[in-house]
């Protein structure tokens, strides 16, 4: 599964010359922690976060902090370009979602922009990753059946079950080696492209007694 498969495509953005205050208003209104900053050609040039907008914008209460006139920090930047982070962590649309998830954990990110030739194509958030992870088993199996039928053209030769995102694929009809092994590896790879799949097990032994994929989904107990 790739980043483009789960990303949010309609992204709220701001420009470098947007006021920092307005960027803060947008984040507060939509509940965002950060906003991508793009130029007139939709190229990603930075990211502005809540902390960037807050920095140096809350004047100290003079009753609590005694200082001489003119002492202290200068006026805060009024524009996004003056507060944004320019070194942005981003991923390509073809990035493996597993790598994106690892990036979130390792760098403690809440979202990451998705780019296509430096232009913003979408954004992946923790919520997007979670949605992909918790897809119902029935939806996962439906998607897998389509892929299996498209690749093999023969659903009658396969039994497919899904339990808590764990996919089990078993052949119900035998074909000569090495074609069988190649086909089984291909189906396992296809299954891993589907959102919500946690693991894939391909049972190489042919079992003609179990229902084919055209029938009802076999229960987990049948593969115990």
TrEMBL record:
Matching InterPro entries: CBS_dom, CBS_dom_sf, Diverse_CBS-Domain
Keyword line: CBS domain
Domain CBS, residue spans: 7-63, 84-139
Name of this protein: CBS domain-containing protein
Organism the protein comes from: Geodermatophilus obscurus
